[in-house]
Amino acid sequence: MEVINTIGRRKTAVARIYMKSGNGQILINGRDYTEYFPTGTLQYVVKQPFTILGVDGKYDVKANLDGGGITGQAEALRLAISRALTQVEEESRKPLKEKGLLRRDPRMVERKKPGQKKARKRFQFSKR
Question: What does CATH list as the number for 4-98?
């Protein structure tokens, strides 16, 4: 199997991955994924596509993560891994799609408007 290159995005985070067959090693920016994502929830999010398909420990992933926060990066990585797995095996698309892992989450932070405190919050109104 050759190296598969895919991209995943979430909020302002971008994950570029290179996946090949191997023994399940996941490197993120040169570090192990358990070191990069310290909480168990984020580690679960990263491994979710593999566990759904039952191919844990079959592929090596080398990822470059950039931008956003730690949660956005984890979910961007999940999307990139899901896309790569569908390129490897076309029949793996259906279970991943049912779980919603092939959909790019469109929610972004709303911009701050001028004359307001935040995106929607306004300064306190004074009648007199």
Answer: 3.30.230.10
- Taking only the tens place, the pLDDT of each residue in 37-73 is 999 999 999 999 999 999 998 999 999 999 999 999 9
**Count of CB atoms situated within 10 Å of the CB of 21:** 13
Beta bridge partners, 93, equal none
Find out whether 51 and 42 touch, Cβ atoms under 8 Å.
Answer: no
Q: What are phi and psi of 95, to 5 degrees?
A: -65, -35
φ/ψ region of 19 (left if φ > 0, alpha if ψ in -120 to 50, else beta) reads beta
Q: What's the CA gap between 11 and 14, in Å, rounded?
A: 8
Each domain of the chain, given as residue ranges in start order, spans: 4-98
